[in-house]
Amino acid sequence: MKKPAVTPDILAAGLLAIGEPTLSPDGSTFAFTMDAGGRQHVFTMPAEGAFPLQITTGIHGFAHPAWAPDGSRIAAVSRDGIWVMSPDGRDIKCISRHTGGDDWPQWWPDGRSVLFSSRRRGWTQ
After folding, report:
1. Is the overall model pTM greater than 0.85, yes or no?
2. Do you know which InterPro entries this protein is assigned to (predicted)?
């Protein structure tokens, strides 16, 4: 019998409403969303398992975490814009402020820019 290419593992047993898992470029850390006080927020957790660290806060919640190519930053979307932060939640800053219109951040390969969709003119562009 052939060994499977991927072996499933439970890294976050007991945690509820986990979504959007994404692995850091070096494979050491997961970023994911999870319910925190009625809102989805971004958390990080070592890939070998540990207690997750909440790295976003606020009344709007966050979604769609995306790692920078070098693993030094995470971009995520909130209802009020696109935000970039370090994996420990420090140095958080808004890079695109627009209520309800920016979504799906992805890093440019050189790590200097973030690509995202926007509905600023009433349609996705």
Report:
1. no
2. 6-blade_b-propeller_TolB-like, WD40
Poorest-pLDDT segment among 16-20, 35-39, 79-83: 16-20
For residue 29, how far is the Cα from the chain centroid? Answer: 11
Could you give phi then psi for residue 49, rounded to 5 degrees?
100, 140
- Look-up: residue for tokens 């890093």? 107
**Measured distance CA(62)–CA(58) in Å, rounded:** 9
- What domains does the chain contain, in order, with CATH numbers? 19-118 (2.120.10.30)
Q: Is 37 exposed, middle or buried (0-12, 13-18, 19+ CB in 10 A)?
A: exposed
Q: How many CB atoms lie within 10 A of CB 69?
A: 13
The count of other CB atoms within 10 Å of the CB of residue 75 is: 24
